[in-house]
Amino acid sequence: MNFSELLKLSGLLSRFSPDGKCLASCVQYRLVVRDVNSLQILQLYTCLDQIQHIEWSSDSLFILCAMYKRGIVQVWSLEQPDWHCKIDEGSAGLVSSCWSPDGRHILNTTEFHLRITVWSLCTKSVSYIKYPKACQQGVAFTRDGRYMAVAERRDCKDFISIFVCSDWQLLRHFDTDTQDLSGIEWSPNGCVLAAWDTCLEYKILLYSLDGRLLSAYRAYEWSLGIKSVAWSPSSQFLAIGSYDEKVRILNHVTWKKMTEFEHPATIVSTKTIVYKEVEKSPSVETERLSFPPTRALASSLFSTQSKYDISQVPVSLQYVKPVADRANPKMGIGMLAFSPDNCFLATKNDNIPNAVWIWDIQKLKLFAVLEQLCAIQSFQWDPRQPRLAVCTGTSRVYLWSPAGCLAVQVPTEGDFQIVSISWHSSGDSMALLSKDNLCVCYLEREE
Questions:
Q1: Which letter does DSSP use for residue 297 in this model?
Q2: Is the pTM of this model over 0.90?
Q3: What is the dihedral of CA 181, 182, 186, 192, to 10 degrees?
Q4: 341 within 8 A of 386, measured Cβ to Cβ
Q5: Which residue from 421, 398, 443 is spatially nearest to 14, judged by alpha carbons?
Q6: Structural domains of the chain, ranges and CATH numbers in brackets
Q7: Is 128 exposed, middle or buried (0-12, 13-18, 19+ CB in 10 A)?
Q8: What is the CA radius of gyration of the chain?
């Protein structure tokens, strides 16, 4: 493993280009585009204000920078650095901005969710989509880029509209049987649209492309409901994480529950491997001690190293009781992610903040648990193989694969607290992000 030096960053804004050749990052109002391998600066763009969101076009030729406070989007071209585009939403304001799948249209959502404006970079034409709903996940594109679903709210009812992305014509418009629609997500094959209700109501609805209701699923009533949703890459399973600390798996044939995964505070199964992170201080031979100590020796004297021990079951995990009288209590399944080969599912139960649970999807059993010293901030699967990277707000990155577990210290000067991870599409490197810095970690490829 090799690490780059620390690069300045603001707002956790760093993205690999879809073609894998460039890495874009933001420092206040500057956009820096680097070569992925050498980290040489290829382009430097200056925006009109502090950047709050960046996104690559699907063909990696353009990059969008949104400045929500000013209601402005600026678009930069990598091929023609002199070309530029500025979209000003004026008094309508701006709350979100994204690319269409063709990389030639920009969708801007105005303040108070009055409308979505579709701007064409090619023809300079403008289209409007009215009544978009203010929710977690209100716009969803199919993986092939042909269709877009938009959650809408009009006359105090929830609707979904499906548009054809080639000409923005309305294909279907139907109402949903939800109290307060919270999010929508297409299956990876683009055949089924999942729509789920507010956390106050456990309900998930599955629609076909032509707007037919295929199935509705409710696990229970009169309690906090759905917290997170994830499709498997094969579109065969839909995982639903809820506030009752369980994950339910629906199958794509009947849309009924196949199984549910519980997240108890004590692990008793002897078939589950529990990796526990332990810290140890390095031992230093007294003969090597000099005064004043050399810089390398000083850093090794005061740094603690981390490794994994395999715990004997039963194992009790650190359980945090949620505060009952607050909104958005820290409880239930807050993170879910399938591995790219469909074999594993990683989950995090917010009641047990220091643990990552890894489930074997073929056997529908708990495979491993990683118990960390600090709370899990983020985890992400390698896009090419079942390898999970985890960060906990420390200067270490943790890697799990079916072969075992590894804790790696990032060799940096000063404080580098990793709160987010982003894999390169090749799986050969990843960007480690802290509040103010970025470091690229290069992994040796296994031959």
A1: H
A2: yes
A3: -40
A4: yes
A5: 421
A6: 131-218 (2.40.10)
A7: exposed
A8: 24
